[in-house]
Structure formats: structure tokens, C-alpha cells
Amino acid sequence: MNEWLVVIGALCLCVALVEAWMMVAVFSNPKGGLARLVPGGQDLLKSHIDYLMMSQLLFIFYLLFAHFGVKASPFLVFAMCVGSVGNAGLFLIRAVRPSLKEKPTPPFRMTMLASCVLTTLGYLGGALTVGGAAVSLM
Predict the structure, then answer these.
(1) What number of other Cβ atoms are within 10 A of residue 51's Cβ?
(2) Can you tell me the distance from the alpha carbon of 90 to that of 47, in angstroms, rounded to the nearest whole number?
(3) What is the pLDDT of residue 45?
(4) Burial class (CB in 10 A: 0-12, 13-18, 19+), 115
(5) CA dist 96 to 11, 12, 85, Å?
(6) Which of 14, 92, 118, 132 has its CA 20 to 30 A from that of 85?
(7) Per-residue b or e along 58-68, where b marks 16 or more CB atoms closer than 10 Å to that residue's CB
(8) Tens-place pLDDT, residues 59-101
(9) What span, in angstroms and rounded, lies between the C-alpha atoms of 115 and 82?
(10) What local confidence, expressed as pLDDT, does residue 58 receive?
(11) Per mean pLDDT, which range of 27-36, 41-50, 76-85, 86-95 is the poorest?
(12) Closest CA to 45 of 100, 77, 88, 101
């Protein structure tokens, strides 16, 4: 099950790389076609940074679990993976629909809340799990 952390981490990294090229297009030609499709350049940047950060965290936790011989619970893996994709993905959605920044719809708000809760529970649980494993070796 821990392998899903690497799979989703790789997906996050690939999306971040695509977004990097999107930013080149958006910021170098603000009146171009892609800039019209993705008018929220700052949220595109936030999504890019978030996908990079989440990919690193997913890879790091996979390695920490492997190092300490921990099989993470399916819920932790699910929460880390869904939360990582969800948080960054919501910034990407806002980049395409900037109106959601000022007037988020109820479904967008609920998705944002669920994603943040899953991310928090997943990474908090992961930190406590590897922290506990490290303490047990002291």
C-alpha cells in the first residue's frame, strides 16, 4: 500500500512540470490563448509550488516508512494521496476560474475543506507514525 505514495508523488511531480511550462506560456504572453484559458496566473504558480511540495512529501514519507519498516495504514496513505492531489488541484481550478477566489461555490468550499482535513490527518498521522518508530529505536 505504501507504494501508492510514490505513484501519486510521481503524478504530482509530472503535473508540476506541465504547470511550469504553462506558466512560461502564460507569463511570457499574457494575451495569448493559454493566458485566456488560465487567467489566474498567481494561482497557477501556487498550484505548481504545492504540487512540487506534495511530491517531495510523498516521496519522503515513502522512504521514511521504508526506512523504519512501517506499513502505513490504508487511511493514512489514502489521506496523504488524496489530500496532496486535492489541495494543489484546487489552486489549479482557481487559476482557470478566478471568480472562485472571491465567491467560492458551496461545492468548492466543501471540497477545499475535505482536502485540507485529509491532508492534515494524513501527514499528521504519518509524522506521528515515523516519529514513534524513531523513538522506539532510541
Answers:
(1) 28
(2) 8
(3) 97
(4) buried
(5) 20, 18, 16
(6) 132
(7) bbebbebbeee
(8) 999 999 999 999 999 999 999 999 999 999 999 999 999 999 9
(9) 7
(10) 98
(11) 27-36
(12) 88
- Angstrom distances, CA of residue 80 to CA of 15, 33, 39, 137: 17, 34, 29, 25
The pLDDT of residue 81 is: 98
Rounded Cα–Cα distance for residues 127 and 17 (Å): 27
Question: Position of cell 507514525?
Answer: 129
Put simply, whether the predicted model's pTM sits higher than 0.90 gets the answer yes
Residue 93 burial by CB count (10 A; 0-12/13-18/19+): exposed, middle or buried?
middle
Q: Residues 81, 29: contact at Cβ < 8 Å? A: no
Residue 91 pLDDT:
97
